[in-house]
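Exercise 7.
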Amino acid sequence: MLNRRYLCGGSWLAVAMALAAGPAAAQSGGAATVEEVVVTGSFIAGTPTDAALPVNVIGAQDLQKQGSPSTVQLVKNLSAAQGSIGESNRFLGTAAGAATVNLRGFGSQRTLVLFNGQRMAPSPAAVAIESVDINFIPNVAIGRIEVLRDGAAATYGSDAVGGVVNFITRRDLEGFEVTANYSKIDGSSGDYDISGAYGWKFDRGNLLVTGTYRRRSELRTTDRDWALRPFAENFYGGWSTASNPGVFTTGTAAQLASGTFSQSFVDNGCAELGGVLVSAASPASGCRFQFTQFDNLVNDEYHYNLYAELNFAVTDDIDFHAEALWARHDVPDERVSPAQSTTQFPTPIMASGGSPGGGTSPYPAVGLNQQSRFYIPPTNPGLIAFLSNAANCPALGTICTNAAANGAIASQTLWRPEGYGGNPLYADGADHQHRQATAYRFSAGLKGHIFDDIGWNLQGTFQENHGVAGAGPDIAVSRLQLALRGLGGAGCNPATGTPGVGPCMYFNPFANAYPRAMGLGGVNPYYVASASNDNPDLLNWLHQDLTGDTRTSLFVVEGVLNGKLPIELSGGPIGWALGAQYRYDRVQISVPDYYDINAAPCVDSSPYGDGLPSCGTSGTGAFTFYSAVQEYDVDRIVSSVFGEVKLPITDRLELSGAVRHEYYGGRIGSTTNPKISIRWQALDWLALRGSAGSTFRAPQQSDITPGNVRTLAQFNLPGVGSLYRPVDQARNPDLRPETADTYNVGLILSLGNFRGTVDYFRFKFKDELTNETAAALVSTMFPSTTPSTWQCNVAAFRSRFNFADDGNPATDDCTPGNLLSVKTNLINGPSVDTSGVDFQGTYYWDDALFDGDLTFGADGTYTIEYKRGALITLDGYTISPALDRAGKTELLSAFYSYPKLRVNAYVNWSRGPHNLRWTTHYKSGTDNIVGASVLKTDDEVTHDFVYQGQLPWDTALTIGVINVFDSDPPFTRSQYNYDYTNAYMLGRVFQIGVKKHF
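Solution. The predicted structure, written as tokens, is:
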């Protein structure tokens, strides 16, 4: 039986920790041992009695009984988490290889992640959202994980809005331990890891040293039939009208010279290569390209981790702690669609002073944006092959005549340089990006006692993360135009070279350059070998790897005093804690000059052109798709003082209070956040608890530094389809911190062999830190295909958009098809009011089945509401109405998903060295509000079965089947046709693990 002192003395958390050590320990007939700890959410030391706060504890042994899930899968299974990231992160604000935890679905930047009670530096792969990468955490060193499901700014300061996840290392290892795990995944080479841990306990302390190598294998969208759906089933499933085969325009010489493009035609091969015509009745409206055919659901990931920890009693009253961590994850080949769409265009010769050199178009600038189109001369082999096809000419009439005489112009919105035929530089046709992130972390501290009854703790932590991310390869605009004119290649001099002769080479923009579709396959009947894009020298000259370095640094010094006052209440002495913290953080972003918006703002910036003309502040760099990056180096110092008191009013009633004051300086100033909590043991079997407090999150230093950030966003334009376009996001020095009031009321049950908790939570946000969603701006401007509904006549609103000039002064350029870019601002957004219920319960049945012990357990979260107010721009336009997001999903532009009910339930049987566990995961379906009609996403139910047994020679064997019935994730309108923030998508996975102790 469990030690009754913990059951009746008021510490549910202590019970939870004992149970987390494993049901077998609780049922073995001996007393479970719980060491004294400082519980997450409190600085008051001693036997944990702070059950007024809703803390879940997950022990290492319990994780083993679950099959030792990866950190990614663990946090995705937390019922209190919504929208955690860890698979393909292409659309979610973090780079591949990184993983985050997102309590309550507020955003991972609002969940504070601690390692041994200390902060971690933001991931360089998620610096835009200031989130911690939990893939840096050494799993093999973890002894338990504590999850505080409540706001904790009063204790920990900024970022602890939705809660705290504290990863705490083990101190129980004696000897050497080797662990190896393998997961067999259909369509993949499988996931595997091997780790070693050495522990040494000596008279005055302990030493722990661990190392891990973990490999995740690539899983492509083409390996899952549900990940790629026909356009008719989900036209949001990765389809774009910027395609190859694409749309081109021609006309008479006079029409082209005046910028009036009157004759459009579509390239051959749309249906044969797997595309879908936008309109069969009007083929020149374009071909739809499914770019996700080239994506991965899981990337090849290599994770490395080294960790060492020393705990040593310097004297009888002073303990020393030191730890060092090195971690790296490497994603050498993240696959993405080839060439992307075009968001920038060549400089016209007229605008460049008539210079014949450089990657210019021979036709004049059109409109104020001074952008031309990509021009294909009549001598381009691809155009010659198109015109020579009997199916095209003379059937296209004067189009053939004009194109043969004057050439053609690629559509700004309905063409991309490479599409279904892929990028010939890579065997699989995809573009490949390299991402790597490395963490260095050191922490050391001393703790002891003064006058026997006052404890003190002084700790310093330093962490630096370094990320190298490749956003490309991308194609240089001016080089692409030169190659279309036959003047491409490193050895070609555009001023003296002859197009297509010697070192001067052509690039073919037509689909006849490619023998087959490289995604789902399919032979191209229009392929012309003599016009193929198969010269690697030309392709390497066109493509440029875009890489950048990001460094995030954190330095924290914290001192805490705690103890008990010489004042005793009916329940015992008053506990207290006082502390102060100094925190320094820094973010640095640097890129090569050719990728720097200040050094190379224009398509003709060196080294890609002659530098003419200047594009001023309107340029987004030198490349067709990815925008150039603005370098910056910003830092911040935050100082804080905090205090806590615990009042045992009676032996059944305990009142606690905490307050923290943080000073940021500058425009942010300071903030003070209080919290109060109470716990009442109403009956021997029933305790009630509650808490109320305020939380706070300051804007990032980079967000309040004047300047702009150029990004790209996907828009679904009425009558056009899916396109990526630049977004010019302005930083905002006037941003205010966001705040939230938090409330929690719950009960704790202890009836015989049953333990359970039920907690009602509520968060009320004000001044949410967010941005003016570019997609919402676009949908407000163009709510439908009907021009009368467009907001083109609202001058102030229209100024947020940049449109291409169609060359006809009689028509308005404000159309979905002419959209070139959007301007947004970082803002303090709407209020958010969310509430729900957390519940968990465990029932123990000794000697229940074949002389074994049964445990039944469940935990879950029911989200009652997630009301988000209307999103209003800085200039007063409502671009998103108020909405209750509970039970809804939007994964195209807003990227959220809030299933109302998430439950994990299990049955565990244990007898001697054998343990069997069956776990069922349930997530309720959502209303998928992407598109004009609501799609009801089905409930998701998956089942896991895990056996763990003790073998001879101090060896443990784990065998598991995850997702026993091989259930597919429910269909959701998203780029990958499933909810990639919540759903399980690997299919049935067979696992085997071996642990050997020496």
